[in-house]
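Internal QA ticket QA-208
Title: Verify multi-chain structure generation after dependency bump
Assignee: T.L.

Test input:
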Amino acid sequence: MGDGLRLNMNAVDYVILALYFVTVIGVGFAARRAIRTSVDFFLSGRSLPAWVTGLAFVSANLGALEIIGMAANGAQYGAMTVHYYWIGAVPAMVFLGIVMMPFYYGSKVRSVPEYLRLRFNRPTHLLNAITFAVAQVLIAGVNLYALALIMQALLGWPLWVAIVVGAFIVLAYITIGGLSGAIYNEVLQFFVIIAGLVPVTVLGLIKVGGVSGLMDAVKGSKLGEAGLHAWQGTGGTDNPLGAHWLGIVFGLGFVLSFGYWTTNFAEVQRALSARNMSAARRTPIIAAYPKLFIPLVTVIPGLVALVTVKGLGTEEGDLVYNNAIPLLMRDLLPNGVLGIAVTGLLASFMAGMAANVSGFNTVFTYDIWQAYFKRDRSDDYYVRVGRLATVAAVLIGIGTAFIAAGFSNIMNYIQALFSVFNAPLFGTFIIGMFWKRMSALAGFWSLLSGTVVAVATYLLYRAGVISFNSDLEESFWGAGLAFVTVAVVAAVVTPLTRPKHDDELTGLVYGLSDASLADDSLAGDAVWYRSPVLLGVVAVILAALFYIPVF
Amino acid sequence: MADDADRYQHGEAHDPLVDETEDAREARSAAARLFDIRRVIGGLFVAYGLIVGLMGLFDSTAEIDKAQGVRINLWAGLVMLAFGLAMLGWQWVSPNRPPEPHRGDEP
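Actual output:
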């Protein structure tokens, strides 16, 4: 990359950035005194209020995927990008809070893979624990690479310096402060990210003459009228995303998003650290509200970049779609808010990477090391293992950062990973939770065959054996096929194998659960505006209403 | 070792690994010593608001022109300052209640 993106940072901008780095590490140190047991280290001692875990939940997802990738999608696909939020996230987040959280939090499992160990058997558990651990370090690498690219392009730092600095800061605050360090920093990062994106959005809109000016300009751009509509034109595949509405509703809205939001431990972990059942259930639902509004500060800047940056959308160089937001920052922001915006971008990459690393260290320690290697050690021993696992994860992340370099659009790369790992997992979970007869062996074979199908679809597409309209369509179909495979295998294997006893399944499956009745509520949890069901329903209705102006 | 019986509803599945760490948490958790994040958010945003807002007071015409004629530093600074103060105010008005004592904390 040339010097085209270099920002004119001055001393004040660097002071703002340095202040952030110091604060983040300070939070890690200050959280250290609250760690005495392994649950303190890995799950914040299950003590946090819902607004903290909720904002951390949304922040954990605000990595490279969101800010850079969604602005890129906004410029490339237009208004259809909102599908990733309003149908591709909010319903699944609400479902997690209302339907699935009672099983997760009520059974006191310490991770998502651990649920599989209790519900099915150890092979299912080990399979999931290992694929999750591998996926997390890969995605941590993607986030780290994206962070380093941005620091190199914007600040002129050499790539390796940027990688080492970014990795070191994340390493420091998680090793020292554990999940509390990660979560507290995610809450802080959430606000810094928003503070960085709002000025770009506001000035961008002023530049193009407000919302109506932007709509007129998009009609005249290469996206044309189609760039302003989310659903029109989805009767076929002749639309910017190349996706049929069935693919959007079932592929993205159901299999992909439910797979990601409800079984991804890097997300669910935030809810498990909440202080009681009510707070745990509200965690993803509180997160759904900011999620509804985030397209305002990602998709709109993407569209503004499309119409104001001449030649945006090249295959490589400074004008790739992924640079939509950095280009606007360069063109619009004076020193001062520029420092805030750069800090916000770096914060977003750190939030994403930290979520992966903290998910990894917990699964590695509880689900791999404790369950299969060193079982009967003291609680303190596992805290030490967790700290070492954090160091290892960051080191491997540095290595895998370079794998990401082979792909033009970071977003699609991550999507592909999700379709491979999450969709079959979600299928196994949802069937296992609601069909108590499903046997332990059926759980294992469903998960394995679904994963194989998803991987095979992806590889055959990459090899050119089968073709789809776009990478995104491939991920919809790969996820859908994996889900169907899971269901079919479960239906075939279950009648042939031994069921689990009811007393092994109480609290883990629907119909044998009194988990939601466990009374750990605090004073005030019963007021109407803290009802998970009410909050969730309102979020889904808002998501539907938001579609009206961009139908 | 704490008594596991009250952790589960009648007949609910037990797991020895989960029990071990939950026992340790109930007996020794230090989570109550966690500081209040609102103080940190409030402090950082007050600092950012003052820095950026002060810059906004002295912005040159070139900088204002770059930002489409908007005194963006001044506005962003004021908003961040107000947000930071609101966070500190929230903490001051309703300080963290100490978490409910764990069963293991009882004397």
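Spot checks passed. Confidence is low (pLDDT under 50) at residues 1-5, 101-107 of chain B.
Status: verified.
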